Amino acid sequence: DEVFAKRFVAHLPYPLTNDQKRTAWVILQDLEKSLPMRRLLQGDVGSGKTVVAAFVAAQVQRAGASVALLAPTDILARQHAESLRAFFASFHISLILLTRTDKRAFFDGLIEELSTEEAEARIERGNCILVGTHALLQNKRIPPDLALAIVDEQHRFGVAQREILAHPKRPDGLVAHLLSMTATPIPRSLALTLHGDLDLSLIREKPK
Known about the structure:
Blueprint: H1 2-10, H2 18-31, E1 38-43, H3 49-62, E2 66-70, H4 74-87, E3 95-98, E4 103-107, E5 110-113, H5 116-125, E6 129-132, E7 146-152, H6 159-166, E8 177-182, H7 187-194, E9 199-203
């Protein structure tokens, strides 16, 4: 949705760098393909990986599907939720935070505390953006319409854990797109990139 994309970028509190624009465009092109995306987004801390993830997540939710962002710690999950909440404030996007101790829903500036049952019921309805920790990987906590899985600091998760998000049990049998993000290139990630199992996007330019 090109009109929505321009509105979203215009409402950001700062201009995107050229690397962020280029990376977001490549990911959007991947999402339009029938082959599931497997992409590694690499950039130093502060390079702006989260806003790229927010931009593409908003596009997926706008298209009527769900997104799950998996973070390795409660603190990082809450930080992501606060960032996404600010980015989505003007766009009527349903955002849910789910960790072992924290279950909240954000919508149009409102914050709602949820019970575990309420959180799972909202996830089951789909068309949401879900942020959380390993708590997402339990039964009834992955949206049935999950179209994009984002894994932050992907080396902090095991292969089996990432595969739960990469191959959710969707009723239609489709496989979700997978975007991994890291500030720490590790040998395994580089090997996967070299062997073609992962496409690689680099953000070298830091925001002013």
